[in-house]
Amino acid sequence: MLSSFFPSRQKPAPASANLPELELSGPVLAESFKAMVHGCEALGGIERYIEALKLKHTLFHQAVSDNALDTMTEETFAGLCTFMGTVRRRISSHLYGENFIAMKQALGPLLTNMKNTADVDQRIAAFCACFPEDKKHRWVRDLAAEMLHNVDPARYPLMTRWMWDRKSNTGVIREIWHGDDVDSNTLNVPDGHPTFVALRADLGGWLSENGVFADTIYYVDLLCAQIYANYICAQGGTYLRADFTSPQDPMQYSRRLLGLDGIKQSSSRTRLKAEDGASFAFDSKLLD
């Protein structure tokens, strides 16, 4: 079964039998995986990225565990936002004052009873309903998906719009779909939690077949970011141009999608702190 592909500390929640079937392209996955490994080697190796993702999830978990969300400060949440590449430039008006208080209140039900994934789509919908339903607030869906995934990556795979957005017919799933004339067809694939669970299960299995047996849930995130980074490059950066401009290295788009580009280890001015004592400062310009 799929669970055997993951170390005990990093197993995803058991997949339901009632998952959609996804037709994914092996050659596209192989090409993206090769590009990912090559890009990571140029900047310290893939293990460096895996450790950064682990740290990110640790910081998010610490920020909301044991009722910490109730007392979370504006500064702490702003620090977390630097890890959310498709959210951070759009959320600035909700980082202070009454808007921040209202957003924290909306996050409460979303992050309550995290062990129960059966109602997650309803929780996301309820969270989004707390904000205006217009183009300026499309980021709200990404915020919900990022918070769930970053707090509990085992139960909640990446479910952001760049992973798959049925309404716009764009995302990672489309880029790796196996079929004739994909570019001119609309994929009839739902964008709820079961689809993303199925996607991670399929990608985890593919990675296992290709020699990746440890830290698979993080490899899946990196691979998906690489896949969509390829799409951004092919489109000339037109999607999310404000967030992803002028990459200076092969992995810059991927890092920005995963929110790993604005955090650096610092010996002073602690913004976020991991359990091992390492302190990290964030680049506040990313929130402008």
Produce a short descriptive summary.
The chain has 288 residues and is mainly α. Helices cover 43% and strands 3% of the residues.
Account of the protein in words:
Strand 2 and strand 3 form a beta hairpin. The protein has 288 residues and is mainly alpha-helical. The chain is globular. The chain is built from 10 helices and 3 strands; from the N terminus they run H-H-H-H-H-H-H-H-H-H-E-E-E.
Radius of gyration using CA atoms only: 18 Å
User: What is the total number of structural domains?
Assistant: 1
Question: By helix and strand content, what is the structural category?
Answer: mainly alpha
Side by side, the strands of the main sheet go 1-3-2
In helices, the fraction of residues equals 40-55%
Q: What overall geometry do the principal axes of the alpha carbons give?
A: globular
List SSEs in N-to-C order. Answer: HHHHHHHHHHEEE
As a percent range, the share of strand residues is under 5%
Overall pLDDT: 85
Terminal CA distance reads: 46 Å
Ranges with pLDDT <50 over ≥5 residues?
1-9, 266-276
Strand elements, count: 3
Largest sheet, in brief, is:
3 strands, antiparallel
What's the helix count?
Answer: 10
